[in-house]
Amino acid sequence: MIVALSLHAYAAAGAVDARRGQPALSREATEFFEKKVRPVLTEKCYKCHSAGAEKIKGGLLLDSRNGWMKGGESGPVIVPGDPEKSRLIHAVRHTDSSLQMPPKEILPASQIGDLETWVRMGAPDPRGAPVPSSAFRVPSSRHWAFLPLRNSPPPGIKKKNWPRSPVDSFILAGLEKSNLSPRPPADKRTLIRRATFDLTGLPPKPEEIEAFLTDDSNDAFAKVVDRLLATPQFGERWGR
């Protein structure tokens, strides 16, 4: 009865998914694959038959629909609709000593039955092409992101009285290399407006402007920036 319902569910999906060149899958067919088939393939087959395997055995990939349709060195392993003609089914049954998958264990009868049902349904498979293993290749160790932290001495600059921190020296060195000069310092009212808009996307409140204008300490602007970085508005702006 379950098999009949599964076959009916897949047959009802007669449309074609142009993106993958296969019949559009019904919800029932997709659910059967995800619950009964994918877990078995992932746990028992991917170690030797996936794009992420260290060595792909027999040239066979089972981590995508295109993979099992193409087959391996011995040709296709699944004949949709016919378990008895599908080499994958014979392999998991261990009926042939020269063709056994997984090689060191036989699957429970329930899992073999699920694979048989899946093939009998037409082997509905919602998976697209696998991600090439090269996509996860570790970049060159020379890339800055993979280098250990180290202190870099500030570069030599002409306007030695301009930097307020080592970071300013690097910025000024870049400007001087391009024959550019820093702009004159902005007035305090303009400075707080720029900082507040940049960090929160909102204008400063009148009382915030007044507090900054009357603060004559050397770290007045640093305190403004620290306050803005601690506001929820900063997180909201940059989290969008």
Describe this structure in words.
This protein has 240 residues and is an all-alpha fold. The protein has 3 domains: 2-128, no CATH class; 153-184, no CATH class; 188-238, no CATH class. It is built from 10 helices and 2 strands, in the order αββααααααααα. The protein has helices spanning 2-11, 27-44, 65-70, 87-93, 109-120, 166-177, 188-200, 206-213, 220-229, 232-238, and strands spanning 16-17, 22-23. A two-stranded antiparallel ribbon has the order 1-2. A hairpin with a 4-residue loop joins strand 1 (16-17) and strand 2. The longest helix is centred in the N-terminal third of the chain and has 18 residues, at 27-44. The two termini are 50 Å apart. The model is unreliable at 1-20 (pLDDT under 50).
Task: Give the arrangement of secondary structure elements.
Elements: H1 2-11, E1 16-17, E2 22-23, H2 27-44, H3 65-70, H4 87-93, H5 109-120, H6 166-177, H7 188-200, H8 206-213, H9 220-229, H10 232-238
Biggest beta sheet attributes? 2 strands, antiparallel
Strand order in the sheet with the most strands: 1-2
Number of strands: 2
Mean pLDDT: 84
Share in β-strands: under 5%
Number of helices: 10
Tell me the number of structural domains.
3
Helix content: 40-55%
**SSE order, one letter for each helix or strand:** HEEHHHHHHHHH
Gap from first CA to last CA: 50 Å
Radius of gyration over all CA atoms, rounded? 32 Å
